[in-house]
Design a protein that fits this description.
With 422 residues, the chain is of the alpha/beta class. 32% of the residues lie in helices and 18% in strands.
Length: 422
């Protein structure tokens, strides 16, 4: 366990930009990526805003009808088994490999693994199972399973890139890609892998979004400028989002030997469950507080060492309050006062991909020297008393950053990233 790991490549298809430069600019200037959205041409649907992905048209269940940026070129054999978010993921991986200076044949020797996170594609499942029912079971698309179930990213990406290392998928709702990143770190620490691609991706369509509306978890605010407002007293639910992010994690000495660009060290991680509810966070944030403490212990750090926390806060009344209380328990009670923000005010909440996306944001903040502010925060919830929640971006490089994620069933995962010096 004396091996360490660093972030060497990032790829982004997100509501706030489809490459590193655009994402960095959006985080610095607090430029949001939320937009009006309609479903079924029905004005009675309560959800009016989402974190949408530009430059792509994947509304059809048939890949031949899709449109994506011309700079990406994929073979038919790969496209025919993809779900829409699989296309996002391929583009994010292409970016990350180029960013890390890795040729495709450099990741096929068994030293590189792949961990993915997504909920699968309810959109493709609905369409393809409907075809089976319409044919009374006599016909069906042979790609139904591999395009739709939760492992669709693992299947497709591993085959396309000829990955021969560890491959797996993670399903822990909104903490899924955080679990993937933590397990990738352990694989590198233990010497099982030299390099890991960690990918999270989700879709933005009725099949993905509207089930959350039925739970009354989504904002009904029709204004994209204020619908997602983590930690604010006026928040009324989260704003769904989609896209894909790929983060490349590499054993430090291997990265140094090949002259790889290094964003930051991934110094530790931890997980703890609430044991409380299938959907609602522990009212005092007990599980998240435990996960944060385990992460600090794993990294050999104290609460006072943390400069910035990228909060999970999704803009739900119960979830944000729970996280605020957990943050006060871990930091305020220890006399620490890190800057804290939730970038979901800009991106919305992309479900299972949020953990790896926000870890990538943290890596950008460390390398490029800034702390994102809290977009749309006007009046903080009283539970945030004593927390430092900057409204504007701060032009200051954080040395050590904590990234939080929480999912259904009280699944809480945290990571620590810190500045890497040669």
């Amino acid at each position: 366990m004396n091996r360490t790991a660093v972030v060497t490549g990032l790829g982004f298809i997100t509501p706030i930009g489809n490459d590193r430069a655009a994402v960095t600019a959006s985080l610095r200037t607090l430029r949001p990526g939320l937009a009006p959205i309609t479903f079924f041409d029905n004005p009675a649907v309560s959800v009016k805003v989402a974190g949408t992905v530009r430059e792509f048209d994947v509304e059809s269940p048939g890949w031949r009808d899709w449109r994506w940026p011309a700079r990406y070129d994929f073979p038919r054999e790969t496209l025919r088994s993809l779900a829409p978010h699989g296309l996002y993921a391929l583009c994010a991986v292409e970016q990350a490999l180029a960013d890390a200076g890795l040729a495709p044949d450099a990741i096929t020797d068994g030293g590189t693994g792949l961990y993915c996170a997504s909920a699968g594609s309810a959109f493709m499942t609905h369409h393809q199972v409907a075809q089976i029912y319409a044919a009374r079971g006599e016909r069906g698309n042979p790609m139904t399973v591999v395009t739709s179930i939760a492992g669709t990213l693992n299947f497709n990406l591993a085959a396309h890139y000829r990955i021969r290392g560890a491959v797996g998928g993670f399903a822990a709702a909104c903490a899924s890609s955080s679990h993937a990143l933590g397990c990738a770190l352990d694989d590198i620490r233990l010497g099982r892998q030299t390099r890991m691609l960690v990918v999270g991706a989700e879709e933005t369509n009725a099949a993905t979004i509207l089930p959350f509306a039925a739970m009354r978890a989504l904002s009904t605010n029709a204004d994209p400028a204020t619908a997602s407002r983590p930690f604010d007293q006026a928040r009324d639910g989260f704003v769904s989002a989609g896209g894909a992010v790929c983060l490349i994690l590499e054993e430090t000495e291997a990265a140094r030997r090949r002259g790889a660009p290094i964003y930051a060290e991934l110094a530790g991680w931890g997980a703890a469950a609430d044991g409380h509810s299938i959907a609602v966070s522990h009212p005092e944030g007990a599980g998240l507080a435990a996960a944060m403490r385990r992460t600090l212990a794993d990294a050999g750090l104290a609460a006072t060492d943390i400069d910035y926390v990228n909060a999970h806060a999704t803009s739900t009344p119960a979830g944000d309050r729970s996280e605020a209380l957990a943050l006060r328990s871990v930091f305020s009670d220890a006399g620490a006062r890190p800057r804290i923000s939730s970038t979901k005010g800009l991106t919305g909440h992309p479900l299972s991909m949020s953990g790896v996306m926000e870890a990538a944001f943290c890596a950008l903040a460390i390398r490029d020297g800034f702390i994102p502010g809290n977009a749309n925060l006007v009046t903080p919830d009283e539970a945030c008393t004593g927390l430092d929640l900057p409204r504007a971006t701060i032009d200051q490089a954080p040395r050590v950053v904590l990234n939080n994620s929480s999912g259904f069933g009280g699944s809480n995962v945290c990571h620590v990233l810190r500045c890497w010096k040669a």
